[in-house]
Structures are given as structure tokens and as C-alpha cells.
Design a protein that fits this description.
By secondary structure, the protein is of the alpha/beta class. 37% of the residues lie in helices and 16% in strands.
Length: 355
């Protein structure tokens, strides 16, 4: 088998060979040399290293000052959220969600919304949710598509006569959307993005009258993640990569899948330990930053060739060792909900345990 040194040399040489024509054609900009990746900084097998202690990389618990403080199934309740407060007089039965992660939360708690938006290039009800909740097949099929989460149809939402609307504050024009939605029904706004999935889960659960159920779910998940990580031999580095539209991105510890790896106590490559954002863009010439012992990658639309045809792909260590795994893009990278989290945990755990 090709040695690690040979693979690394080949990867570095291939990267230089691909990048040189670009460098020759373009004048350098100030600061580019400082930010250019070093070939020595990308992930490499660390089986001799110590396995990290499982520690949450994202906020846990109810956000400070938010929620209702009410017990399970107690109504009315006043829920303080990220755009104000909402008076929820009775257990909601007609819920509209303006983020598929919140659709995930509602289904996990046993509630099927009547309306939902969809992300770019995604279905209103992602396939992983259809698979996870076959008992709701008919009702999932009848969920009304209310448009893009960036610009939901006010008319479509109003026609559904909801008694609760859920949205997140990370969407574009959040203030404008909130003003429109809160004029229709009580509206609860979470912080949004994968970095805050745990606290957002708790806040949405509170609005649905299920705070204790959500807490118990999180406690069970944390225990299962730590247990799964403890059964994995050695201290493998795990890399996360996504291709969508024409973008290549690496995902760090603050991302949804990155938080699961942290909860499992799994190590990350050096280039994926950044904590200033959930992800960072790389060029095809920087693909070496996706190296590691294992690579889990998602592709919008599912066409793996958009990644596997890249010049540097064959030189990556997990490709050579057959430890590069294409994953469900919706569950891993688009939906920060508890069922997506379980899908990530199962996929990573089952893959690493096979070796």
C-alpha cells in the first residue's frame, strides 16, 4: 500500500502543479501569502494520538432569558424568544415552520406541521425525515409548501390559519418576515444556524409545551454519542466536506456535524479546528485541507462526481484507504434538527466501527 509520506508528497505536488498556472496568471494580493494553507497543516492519521474528551462544541441549555419557565404541557405560556415574546394560549395544533430544522424538531416531538418552507435545492420534507417517520407519511405528503424560507408567502401562511409559527433569526430579512408572521399568529424566533441547534431545540420544544421531553432527548443523545465515540479504536481524525452550487466548504466544530463529532470525542484535522465560523470555503487547489483518516462529504443534488472528479481527490488519504464516505446532504449539512443529529451519529459511528 502507498505510504502516508508518498500520499502526502503526491498531494502537495499535485496541489502545486494545479495552482502554479493560476498563480502565474494572477498578481498576488496583499495578505494572500499569510492566508495560504500549508501542506503540513492538513489532517493526517493520528492513531498514536490521544482521543479527545467528549465536550460540546456548541451552546447547550436554554438560551439565557429565553423560554417560558413553564412545565410540560402547561398552557397558556409566554415564550420569550429572539425577537420578543409570544403568548401561546393553548397547545398548538396548526403549526407553520419557516426552517426545515424546525420541521425536524416538531416531528421528533410527535407533531406534524401544516406548512413548511424549503431550502435552496431541497425538498419541503427531506428524505431522511420521510424515512424516519413513516407513520406520518400521509400527513407529510399534505404539508403545504409556503415558499422559500428567505421569502415565505404571507398569503399561503395566512390561509393556513396557524396557531403557532416557528422561524429562526438567521434568515435574510428576519425582521421583515417576523413582522409579517407575528401579525398572523404567535411567532417564536430561534437564533438559527447549526451552531445553536441544541438551544434552539429547547426553545422550540418550550413553545410546543414539550420542554422536559426535549431535555430528556438531549441527555440520551449526549450519553449515546459519548458511548459511540468510546467504542471507536484509536484516535482517528475526521474530516467534513460539502459541495453545493460551485462552492467547496470545510465544516468546523461549530457546525451541526462538527458538534456531533465533538460530542463523540473524535479528533479533527488541524485545518478544521477553526471556531470563527461554522464553515469555510476552499478552492479545488486547497482540497488537501480535507485530508484526514476519515472523510464524510455531502453533495447538493447527490452527484458525487462533483467532488470525486477533482484533480486532488485521488491523493487524499481517506480516498486511498477507502474511508471517504458520501453522506445524506440534507441530514448532515442542511437541517439542524434532532433527527438529523441522530442520522449523523449513526452514520459516523457505523462507518468507523466497521474498520
Amino acid at each position: 500500500m502507498t505510504s502516508l509520506y508518498s500520499r502526502r508528497s503526491a498531494l502537495t505536488f499535485a496541489g502545486l502543479a494545479t495552482a502554479l498556472p493560476i498563480l502565474a496568471a494572477c498578481s498576488s494580493k496583499k495578505g494572500e501569502s499569510d492566508s495560504a494553507p500549508s501542506s503540513s497543516s492538513s489532517g493526517s492519521p493520528t492513531s498514536a494520538g490521544a482521543k479527545p474528551t467528549p465536550t460540546s462544541s456548541v451552546p447547550t441549555g436554554m438560551p439565557e432569558g429565553k423560554g417560558s419557565g413553564q412545565a410540560e404541557d402547561v398552557f397558556p405560556r409566554t415564550v420569550v424568544h429572539f425577537k420578543g415574546s409570544a403568548e401561546i394560549s393553548a397547545a398548538p395544533t396548526k403549526i407553520v415552520v419557516i426552517a426545515t430544522g424546525q420541521l425536524d424538531v416538531a416531528l421528533t416531538l410527535g407533531i406534524v406541521p401544516v406548512g413548511s418552507t424549503k431550502g435552496d435545492g431541497a425538498e419541503a420534507v427531506p428524505g431522511y425525515l420521510k424515512k424516519a417517520f413513516p407513520q406520518y407519511a400521509d400527513r407529510l405528503g399534505s404539508i403545504t409548501d409556503i415558499g422559500s424560507r428567505k421569502d415565505p408567502s404571507v398569503e399561503a401562511v395566512s390561509n393556513l390559519a396557524p396557531d403557532l409559527i416557528l422561524m429562526n433569526g438567521a434568515i435574510k430579512k428576519a425582521d421583515e418576515v417576523y413582522a409579517s408572521m407575528s401579525a398572523i399568529a404567535p411567532t417564536v424566533v430561534t437564533q438559527g444556524t447549526g451552531q445553536y441547534w441544541k438551544q434552539d431545540f429547547l426553545l422550540v420544544a418550550d413553545a410546543l409545551g414539550k420542554p422536559d421531553t426535549a431535555k430528556k432527548w438531549l441527555e440520551a443523545y449526549q450519553a449515546d454519542a459519548a458511548k459511540a465515540g468510546a467504542t471507536i479504536e484509536g484516535a482517528p481524525t475526521v474530516s467534513l466536506l460539502r459541495h453545493n452550487e460551485e462552492r467547496l466548504r470545510l465544516f468546523g466544530p461549530l457546525s451541526t456535524p462538527g458538534s456531533v463529532l465533538a460530542d463523540m470525542g473524535l479528533a479533527r484535522p488541524k485545518d478544521q479546528q477553526f471556531t470563527d465560523d461554522t464553515s469555510k470555503d476552499i478552492s479545488p487547489e486547497q482540497l488537501e485541507q480535507a485530508d484526514g483518516d476519515w472523510l464524510f462529504y455531502g453533495v447538493q443534488g447527490g452527484d458525487a462526481s462533483k467532488v470525486t472528479s477533482l484533480d486532488l481527490w485521488p491523493a487524499l488519504n481517506p480516498v486511498d484507504t477507502k474511508q471517504a464516505v458520501q453522506v445524506d446532504d440534507d441530514a448532515f449539512f442542511l437541517n439542524a434538527g434532532p433527527t438529523a443529529i441522530r442520522t449523523i451519529l449513526t452514520t459516523v459511528s457505523d462507518s468507523l466501527k466497521k474498520k
